[in-house]
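User: Sequence for Glycosyl transferase below. Tokens please.
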Amino acid sequence: MRILLVGEYSNFHNSLKYGLEFLGHEVTIIGDGDGFKRFPVDINIGNDFLERSWFTRKLKVGLWKITGYHLADYLKLSRFRESEPLLKHYDIVQFINSNPFNCGARTERKMLESIIAQNKRFFLAACGDDHEYVKYLTEEHQGYSILEAVKHGKQQQTDFQYSYKYLKPAYRDNYYRLVDVATHVIPSNVDYAMALTHNPKAIPIIPAAINCGALHLDQNADLSVIKIFVGINRSNYWKKGINYFEETLEIIKKKYGSKVEVMTAENLPYNEYVKIYKKAHILLDQVLCYDQGYNALEAMLQGKVVFSGAGEVYLTAHQLTSVPAIDAQPDVDYLVGKLSELIDHPISILEIGRTARNHVLQHHESVMIAERYLQYYQE
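Assistant: Structure tokens for Glycosyl transferase:
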């Protein structure tokens, strides 16, 4: 089959593409590379000109504030139009979400409608913010979530524009347009499946695909200094609960001194980000989630001990009895306790890491996951 995967972030579609191509299918990804992260895509409509310097970034924002004109959207739409002849007659089209090109809703709608008009069979992934997910978090969800900082008054809704924009009518309409044409909506983990319990097109979770052959067991056997890594993306700092990790690490540094080393990386392209955490023993991924995202899974594949979603909600949804990851909860004392256990018993770090790799191989291997997608594609 010819398969078009629309949008890319966190290596979600690249990993699925690997599995689908291994099984003999022709796969094309169109997207913008997820901004500064620069994930590979086959048809790139992104343009990094406006991100090259402080001046060009300020120019972009200033023009938008004064005129309401999104220069970046115009550039993306222009590149999309150039690529339109390459976007027709696919057997399957899968959208990564309802805003796959990260443009304003009106510009996005033009591109979505072009793809819909030129193809026939569509699927919608649920693996990031969208209308149904944000609506669920603001109206029904119990417990902690990516909007925790707003709920507790630490941040304003205006600081979470990326998420709350999906409640606006134009973004809502784009979402339901894709739901309407989609054969199925496919949740990639527990967090997104929670929001889809009333959606008749939603299917059971298909876990995120990981290209397991691309990343090998890479543990740091030197346990004399425990290296703890935390990646920081300022745009989702509060959504991931990185503030809990930073408070925890301040306590850990005072408690253990030279026995620990904290490693950080901020707003880096994907390839550079991965290089930095290679020497880490422990990776602090995110707090305000109930499942593991891509950074967590890829780190687990390399034998790191990962703090992410790994509690009872996760185990129940995936029908598992255990998972070799540390359930990260929004409680600094709890996080300090969990890190202290690892630092006080360093040999357990290597044991958990090896088990973590086996877990990803067993539950997320890309060819196996691609086969599960194909069951629905080929209905």
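The chain has a mean pLDDT of 92.
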